Amino acid sequence: MKVFVLTVLVAVAAARPDKRTSEEVVPILRDDRVEFADGAYSFDVETGDGIRRSEAGQSQGDAGAVNMAGDYAFTFPDGQEFYLKFVADESGYKPESPFLPVAPAFPHPIPQFVLDQIAFAAKEDANRELDQARGDYRRGAPGQYSTTMKFIIFVALVASALARPDSPPSYSAPGQRSSDDVKDPVKILRDDRVQPEDGSYAFDIETEDGIVRSEAGQNENEAGVVVQAGQVSYTLPDGTLFELKFVADENGYQPQSDFLPVAPANPHPIPDFVKEQIERAERERQADLSNSQRATYN
Fold first, then answer.
1. Model confidence pLDDT, tens digit, residues 152-165
2. Which residues, 6+ apart, have CB-to-CB distance to 245 below 8 Å?
3. Given 3-state DSSP classes, what are the helix, strand and coil percentages for the chain, each rounded to the nearest 5?
4. Cβ(255)–Cβ(242) under 8 Å?
5. β-strands 66-75, 227-235 pairing
6. Which of 18, 125, 221, 254 is most buried (most C-beta within 10 Å)?
7. Are 195 and 178 in contact (CB under 8 A)?
8. Other beta carbons within 10 Å of 89
9. Which helix (H) or strand (E) holds 205?
10. Domain ranges of the chain
11. Which residue has the higher pLDDT, 57 or 65?
12. Is the pTM of this model over 0.70?
């Protein structure tokens, strides 16, 4: 059965359009290897199709680590040469190559009107904490963000996403505004909030540009986990309604939306002759099992 499983893997690899024929044997141009009794080693290998690989390493004894350094290179089909060198030690694996991806600059500049709203919310929170220090607890429990601040932070995140030049259309919120629109604030049509003393809460917010956000939660369930559920919706620039619902509990964050990506189907169908080999191997395995059982019985 193991042999036929290996046959399946080889057959799937052989189905690739860029497979080599059996006559195309790649020669090894250089293969220098050194291994010492103390665990140190080095090797330098080069093949006829342009692959080069070299590495050296040594054990660190009492530290229990192995330090390694090396490089490798090969040529792309378009003639461009790939090169990478690396060092691996107690600080981890550190590769260097011009082909490694580089994180882009922070793509979420926050508009000034959002910064003003955040500053305003922070001022409100400071006043609320002052009221609490004086014994007025009607506006929420000490040490918690006010629901006003939570909503402003949510608006800031939406505005940051809008400002991204490469934002995909399926994730862009409506009502994109420039700095010229600061004098035209978005009206809040509904803002219902409930925050009992037991730590549970609920809010339901709607703005005139089509954003609807609702959420409810309780402090802890029987498993000692904060449980939350809610939904968000808005209209995309092309008129499509985006909706997302979620539950967050001891099983983690579980979103549901038609806009969430779906994993594609397996891109490697198994050829019929490979399936036949698997079936044949299973028949042989069953026959061997039957023969073994008969021998044991006799």
1. 566 556 555 555 54
2. 229, 230, 231, 255, 256, 257
3. 30, 30, 40
4. no
5. unpaired
6. 125
7. no
8. 15
9. strand 201-207
10. 24-96, 112-256
11. 57
12. no
